[in-house]
Structure formats: C-alpha cells, structure tokens
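Q: What structure does this chain adopt?
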Amino acid sequence: MPEKLPDKTVFSLSEVARSIQRTLAERYKSSYWIKAEMNKLNYYSHSGHCYPELVEKRDGQVIAEMRSILWKADYQRINQRFVEIAKEPLKNGITILIQASINYDPLYGLSLRIIDIDPAYSLGELEREKRASIDRLKQEGIFHANKQRPFPLVPKRLAIISVETSKGYADFLKIIGSNPWGYRFELSLFPALLQGDKSVVSIINQLNEISATHQRYDVVAIIRGGGGDVGLSSYNHYQLAATIARFPIPVLTGIGHSTNETVSEMVAYQNAITPSELADFLIQCYHRFSAPLLRAQQVIVNQSNQLLHNHRQQLTNAARYFRLSSINLIQHQHHAITHLTAQLQRSFAAHARHQRQELYYLRQRLPVVIRTILRNSQAELSAANNSLRLLDPQKVLNRGYSITRINGRALKTTDSVKKGDTVQTVLASGAISSTITEIKHGSYE
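A:
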C-alpha cells in the first residue's frame, strides 16, 4: 500500500514495478511478430540460453534498442531450422523476424521473450538489401567499373584480404604454392574480419590501405571459407560493393559458397565460387601466357635447327666448290708460271747476249773516251785555278781596293756605325785605324 504523507502519496519502487508489470501483462496478452536487427546473439554455452540484443537503425543510427530472451529449448529448435533453411546458424548482425511476447520483470526490466524466428524472412530481407545495392550501383554507373580495369598478362603480385587461419585461405595457398609448373606468385596478406557486422568496415579499411600503394600489386583477392547467405550478407552491403567497383586495379573474389552471387562478387573483376577455384583461375592466367610462349620457343628451336641445317649444307657445298675452284686455279696458275718461266729464260738469254755485245763495244771505245774526259777535266781545272788566283784578297788589295772592319767584322753599310766609332782599314801594304766623325748615307758617287 502507498504511504500517506500530509501533502503527497508515496509509492515504493516495487509497487511501481508491479503496477507496470500488471499493466503490460493486461495490455500485451498475446505474442507479436517483430522485425529487428540482432546486434548480438549473446549465447551462453554453460546454460544454453541466449539474450539477444535487438536494435532498429535508420540511416546508420540506432533509434530503438531492447533486450530479449531466447531459452535453450527454443534456441536449439530455431537454430536447427536456420541451419536447414539458411545453411548456417543464427549469428550477429542479421535482420530477423521474431515472434515474441512482451514481458516486464520488476528486477530485470522490460524484455522480449522470443518464441520463434522466421529464417525465410531473413533470407528475403537479405535479398531486398541485395537488390537495393545493385540498383544504386547501376544508377551511379559503377556496377561494371572494376570489370573494365586492364588485367595484367601475368598476375604475379597479389594483395590478399583474408584471415590467416581461414581454411579457404589455406586451400588457396596450397594450390598456388604447389602448382606442378613451378609458377611463382608474390603474396601480401592484409588480415580482415570476413563475416559479421564488423566485416564491412574491416574489409573496406584494408582495401583503402592497398589502394594507397596499388602500383605495387597486380590484383586484389578477397578470400574466405564457405558459408550460407546469412553469413555472406555483408558482401551485399552497398559501401563494400562500391569500394570494390571503384577500386583502381582488378578485384578477384573467392568467398566459398555455391548459392546466389553477392553484390561484391557481381561487381568484382572475376568471381570464383571457392578459393580453390580462384587459385586455378590465376594459374590458368599463367598458362594462357606461358603456352604461346612455349610454342613460340619450340618454333624458334625448330626454325633455328632448320636454319643451321640449311647453312651447314650451304657451307658444305661452298667448301666443295672452293676446293675444286682452288685446284683449277692452282693448275691454271702453274701453267701460267711455267709459260712465264720459259719467256723469262728466253728474255734473259736475249738480254745477256745484248749485254755482252754492249760490253764488247764499251771495251773497244773505253780508252778513247777516257782520254777525252781527262783532257776536258784538265782544261776545266786550269780555268778554275786562274779564277781563284784573281780572287786572292791580296791581289784585290793590290788593285787599289781596301777592307774596312769594325769590331773584327767587315763593314758593309753606314747603318752599322755611328760617330765616334773606331774602324780599321786594311790596304795592300798595311792597315790604318780611323775615328768616325761624319756619316753620309746613300749610294757612292
């Protein structure tokens, strides 16, 4: 009962709580189908109960939030149906349609007791979100953008977004690393969450990191293990698909499922159903490059062998022709030498006879010629001796000439002396010294 005070009535907290409990129980007598996003399942393995955290979002913002209860027996039944229909168990981050009753407990507060969950609705909601993402990407004209990126002839440098412990990633590495042709790939792992409500942001962050240095890579590969449509719902998210569509280099996906393609796979350059199939695709790229290369190599080898054979045959023929030509040339030159030898012998004999005749003639004429030469030489010597006697300096001085010297050198011009110089004059009978007192330039008169 409420406590009465002079000016007010006071209720205890439990009384208010029980009043709310009675009111809600009377108002909400039946169960209701409610659409919400299961933000967290909150499964407790020791009890088997779940306490899902339900939210409603608008434009990315939470506008309503409520606790709920899913008892062990109901959870096992519902989870089994999810596995059968959606191909995977209940998990965080999916939109669900629940049948629930509204409960209020004075101690634990307001909550929804989940009686059933419709897995078909979750699948339909995923399909609706998928369709909305596809329509938006097409309206923006980027749905086929990544497929138009130039693809390298040999995709050697791979930026891989995956979980290092993923079985799908392990299968991919096994096929790539042990291919029997010895093809070598350069792998760079960028770890990311690949499922759940945080996977979209995680994958986008890694794509942005790769994009900053995309020149280092040929392609990007997104790899995860298998899963059903619910677990793959993040790959229908518009923001993730748009990031892939706009990515500056080709994006390849191998996210391991055999159901309908997700939007991210649709916009990627190449989609493989499994990581193993993606590894095979990359190896086939090497095949498409190496097969023509090997054929070209064989063509070069065959044509080189044929060319060598042809040239070897031509060389053999040329050697045979050269040998025969050399023999003929040697024989011809031998005949020519023999003929020239005979001619030279005849010419030498004739020349020898002519020389003997000239020698005999010279022997007959030599005394007369020598006497004539001696007489002429004596006459020339006598004339030269007379000329030399006439040029004797003493005889020249005797004819009235003199020699003037300055400093021991003969004086030839007036430019070689100046007033006051002392000169020596040599005469036929002696010499005199003179001092220059006057100099007259010009010719002598």
